[in-house]
Design a protein that fits this description.
The complex is a heterodimer of chains A (169) and B (740).
Chain A: E1 3-9, E2 12-18, H1 24-30, E3 50-53, E4 56-59, E5 72-74, H2 79-87, H3 97-104, H4 114-127, H5 133-140, H6 150-168
Chain B: H1 3-22, H2 27-30, H3 43-46, E1 47-49, E2 55-57, H4 68-80, E3 87-89, H5 107-110, H6 112-135, E4 142-145, E5 148-151, E6 154-160, H7 161-165, H8 198-203, E7 218-223, E8 237-241, E9 252-256, E10 259-264, H9 267-276, E11 278-281, H10 293-299, E12 303-310, H11 313-319, E13 322-330, E14 342-347, E15 352-356, H12 361-372, E16 379-383, H13 395-409, E17 413-416, H14 419-424, E18 432-440, E19 446-456, E20 458-459, H15 463-467, E21 474-475, E22 496-504, H16 520-537, H17 542-549, H18 553-565, E23 587-596, E24 602-612, E25 618-628, H19 635-654, E26 683-688, H20 704-719, H21 730-739
Parallel strand pairs in B: 2-3, 7-17, 15-16, 19-22, 25-26
Antiparallel strand pairs in B: 1-2, 4-5, 5-6, 7-10, 8-11, 9-10, 12-22, 13-18, 14-15, 14-17, 18-19, 20-21, 23-24, 24-25
Helix pairs in contact in B: 4-6, 12-13, 16-20, 19-20
The chains are: A alpha+beta (169), B alpha+beta (740).
Chain lengths: 169, 740
């Protein structure tokens, strides 16, 4: 049965009514009306629904909402602010460097997988600011793209890595 | 247009201008209130000019993530002499947008480009006539920049489109006489304008179909067997216990015949209800199973049709220096769209609004009207993007299912297919068996080509309609369902040709549908490997052999373009007949070339692949693709399309195969239907042969077949072994290497 739960999403505390085992994805999309995380498989196979929980890429489609009740959750919408906090910037930029790099590379086709791609690449660059081709491929391997946009995504992650290095310098 | 006609038209222009002055209604408010399609011969159907000197172009093609909507705006901006920042489009809606036919067969630019160009040219002429009155100068002396009309040499005397028309309708029929710009004057067409929706997509502001919500709606899920049976069988409910979900709050069953769904206020409750509903299905075997599929296909009673007959194939073969004769087997493949389809339907007693991701809003409206038993004009269909569909995925099925569920529940219903619904009930790209014989003379000239293809047609009735009571029916006819004379040897100069289509009884097989470049990967896999074998028998490099056998300048052009892009050097060692597998054990590399297309355009590809002879794993390292699609409106988009096609083709050649036992499809998710992943992603290189003087033809799928062939030929170059069946899975590769 539905219970009142508190979740912390994009630096804001929300009270939601949901049964504890409800996957986080359904709460984010139907209660918080967020558009970043989105349904892809419901099986944690594709990465469409990814969010950051404590900075760690997490598949929200199989994560019970009660299991992340006290943890900071960041979605695509909160990524620029998350990045600003990480880099100690005075204000959140309009876009995370990965998002900007994907625009610059005109990387996408349908773009539905890009929520997960952006979340995963952001997690990677936070841990490893200058990844090699192989490290990017390995990190991103759990994120599928049906349109075949991988080559441009790869370039965009490198481009974002360079942009972030300039911010730090 | 003759000069005489043009003069008469310009004289008649005055009457049209008076017509303009009389109209006084705000057209924007009318739009959307009546069922379409609007009259395609009226300028207002296509275009509205706003008071702020911007324009809205009404486009009848769906944006499928390929950039076609931006490219069509480029065409309109070009003819109107407006800037891309001044021009926008709206979502497809049967009450708003024109009927340009479905967005398939790469038609958006090929068919839509000329339509939009004509409409924009008609609007421009009308605007110039208005400006001519206003500025008191003949049309011939006017020039336009960014929607600002001025007199040549007198820039101060000017008026904007917005000032001339400002949110009022044109009320103007096409004259058929509006001049279009010669391509030599293009400023916007042919340039790489960026796609306008990308910033919203990366920031999460873009609305996909899956995001749509309406007040008071229920969430729905369909309840079906996991994986389809033979198309003609559908699914039959044996036993259904509605009380099995009574503990789930608000969940209830909706049912018409064998169509079963559940609805609930809360989405997770709908998911749970679909999972927990006790239902048993008739489980009578109806399928051959993957292992016996091709034998059954080859032995089946078929409906045969000679697609092309030229010269005397049998005679030419009897006199030929070399003949290669082979058979090939190709799998069912799935659209496996990245996001399972979703639809939202609001059905009342006498009307319906259905939001979905159809490639054809008007076509979907027709079938929805039949399913709901409503007049067509009472049904409104709106398009919202889903994930890339690449053909007839479950978008019609989900729209019908949502509409049925809304009608049965008497509430708006948002229906999201689960992963297994989409993978298991797709309209699969049909499996294929090929038997091919091709001959050369002593000079290495192709003299005879014979191709027999076995496959079935596409489904004409969707699963939801079928389960609700409409009998299954095949969709007969259509060039894309037949052996393709372009991909099957059509690029070569061959005097004697015979192509025969053997149509299988489709209801005994899986539900078929168009999948990006329908059947062409199968055709080129068989055909272009045969061409390579003949190159080898004639002692020629496969690129040189193709050059020597092609006369058509555009096929030659695209072949040369890809060879140049890939820096092709003649292949040697592996192409001697006696050369067996090189380097026993370990990883071997190979390079191959291939050609093909779909219904128009010209495609060529080169592949560099690695084959691990111990594990059987094949990886594409570098893929090169070239296309000639006539006038390329936005070459950058097309390069991106080629890149996507190369990767998707590699995925289909290495991984993709729908599997089934005798009762159901068993490939139901990304584990059982794997696609190419990031780790194996090749480098891609693309080039577009720009032909400003040729009409635009498709660019969304025409390199797929060439890429498949190039990969197959590269496998031979690497190993000395020919693969006669794809996908090239490790098991299949190891078995083929062991046989060699």
């Amino acid at each position: 049965m539905a219970e009142e739960l508190k979740i912390r999403v994009n630096e804001r505390l929300w009270t939601v009514a949901a049964s504890p085992e409800t996957p986080l994805l359904y709460v984010l999309t139907n209660e918080l009306l967020l558009h970043g995380p989105r349904f892809g498989c419901g099986l944690a196979q594709c990465g469409s629904c990814s969010v950051l929980v404590n900075g760690v890429e997490t598949r929200s489609c199989v994560t019970p909402v009660s299991s992340v009740a006290d943890m900071p959750i960041t979605t695509l919408e909160g990524l620029p602010a998350w990045y600003a906090a990480q880099k100690k910037l005075p204000a959140a930029p309009p876009l995370h460097p990965v998002q900007q790099a994907l625009i610059d590379e005109q990387a996408l086709q349908c773009g539905y997988c890009f929520n997960g791609m952006i979340i995963k690449a952001s997690e990677l660059l936070a841990k490893n600011p200058q990844p090699s081709d192989e490290q990017i491929r390995t990190a991103m391997n759990g994120h599928l793209c049906r349109c075949g946009a991988y080559p441009r995504i790869l370039k965009a992650v490198h481009r974002a890595s360079e942009a972030m290095a300039e911010v730090t310098r | 247009m003759s000069d005489l006609f043009r003069r008469d038209f310009l004289k008649a222009g005055g009457a049209l201008v008076i017509g303009f002055a009389l109209r006084n209604r705000l057209y924007a408010q009318e739009r959307g209130s009546v069922a379409g399609p609007p009259d395609p011969k009226q300028v207002d159907t296509w275009l509205a000019i706003h008071a702020d000197n911007t324009a809205t172009v009404y486009i009848g093609f769906a944006e499928l993530g390929q950039g076609a909507s931006t490219a069509l705006l480029q065409v309109a901006a070009e003819e109107l002499d407006m800037d891309m920042s001044q021009i926008k489009t709206v979502g497809l809606d049967t009450n708003v947008t024109p009927n340009q036919g479905g967005t398939y067969s790469s038609a958006a630019i090929a068919r839509g480009g000329p339509q939009i160009r004509t409409a924009a040219a008609e609007a421009r002429l009308a605007l110039l006539q208005l400006a001519s009155k206003k500025l008191d100068a003949p049309v011939e002396r006017l020039t336009v920049s960014r929607g600002n009309v001025s007199i040549v040499g007198v820039p101060a005397r000017a008026v904007t489109y917005g000032e001339l028309v400002g949110d009022q309708p044109f009320h103007l029929a096409f004259t058929g006489a509006a001049p279009v710009k010669p391509p030599s004057q293009y400023k916007v067409v042919g340039t790489n304008v960026p796609r306008n929706e990308i910033p919203d997509i990366v920031s999460g502001k873009h609305l996909y179909m899956q995001h749509m919500r309406v007040p008071d709606m229920l969430h729905g899920r369909v309840v079906r067997p996991r994986g389809q049976s033979a198309y003609g069988v559908g699914a039959r409910v044996r036993d259904l216990d509605e009380s099995s979900i009574r503990d789930i709050p608000g969940a209830r069953v909706v049912r018409r015949g064998d169509f079963v769904g559940v609805v609930a206020e809360n989405e997770w409750d709908a998911v749970r209800a679909a999972r927990e509903l006790k239902i048993t299905w008739d489980n009578t075997p109806s399928l051959p199973g993957t292992d016996k599929l091709h034998e059954q296909m080859r032995a089946a009673k078929t409906t045969d049709r000679v697609v092309l007959e030229r010269g005397d194939v049998a005679g030419a073969i009897s006199r030929a220096a070399h003949t290669v004769s082979q058979s090939y087997r190709c799998p069912y493949q799935s659209h496996a769209t990245f996001a399972p389809n979703c639809a939202l339907a609001q059905v009342t007693a006498d009307s319906a609004l259905v939001m979905c991701s159809t490639q054809d809003v008007y076509g979907t409206r027709n079938t929805l009207a039949r399913v709901l038993n409503l007049p067509v004009e009472k049904v409104r269909v709106q398009y919202y993007e889903g994930a890339g569909t690449y053909g007839h995925s479950c978008y019609d099925d989900v729209a019908q299912a949502a509409a049925l569920m809304s009608q049965l529940a008497a509430k708006p219903v948002r229906l999201q297919f689960m992963r297994w619904d989409e993978h298991g009930w797709d309209n699969y790209g049909p499996a294929h068996v090929a038997e091919i014989r091709v001959s050369i003379d002593a000079n290495g000239k192709l003299v005879a080509y014979e191709y027999h293809g076995w496959h079935h047609n596409w489904a004409g009735v969707e699963t939801s309609a079928q389960l609700a009571g409409t009998p299954a029916a095949e969709w007969n006819g259509g060039a894309a369902q037949q052996v393709n004379p372009l991909t099957c040897g059509g690029m070569y100069n061959i005097p004697n040709v015979r192509l025969v289509n053997h149509q299988l009884p489709g209801k005994e097989y899986l539900k078929g549908g168009w999948l990006r470049s329908p059947l062409d990967l199968s055709f080129s896999f068989a055909s272009e490997q045969t061409i390579d074998e003949l190159a080898q028998l004639s002692g020629m490099d496969p690129y040189a052999f193709r050059q020597a056998n092609i006369k058509d300048a555009r096929w030659l052009g695209v072949l040369d373009a890809v060879a140049k892009l890939a820096n092709w050097a003649p292949l040697h060692a592996s192409h001697k007949p006696e050369a067996g597998p090189r380097n026993p054990g370990g990883v071997v590399s190979g390079r191959g070339i291939g050609m093909g297309t779909h219904l128009a355009s010209y495609g060529a590809a080169v592949a560099d692949i690695d084959v691990d002879k111990e594990t059987g794993k094949v990886i594409a390292r570098r893929l090169y693709g070239a296309i000639d699609c006539g006038l390329a409106v936005n070459p950058g988009f097309i390069e991106n399309q080629i890149g996507g096609q190369l990767v998707q083709s590699a995925s289909r050649m290495f991984h993709e195969e729908v599997t089934f036992n005798t009762t159901n499809v068993t490939s139901l998710d990304w584990g059982s239907y794997p696609i190419l992943r990031f780790e194996e992603c090749p480098e891609v290189h693309a080039t577009v042969v720009q032909r400003l003087d040729q009409r635009s033809t498709g660019a969304g799928e025409e390199v797929m077949a060439a890429a498949a062939a190039a990969i197959a030929n590269a496998f031979f170059d690497a190993t000395g072994v020919r693969m006669r069946e794809f996908p090239l899975t490790p098991e299949r590769v190891l078995a083929a290497l062991a046989r060699a």
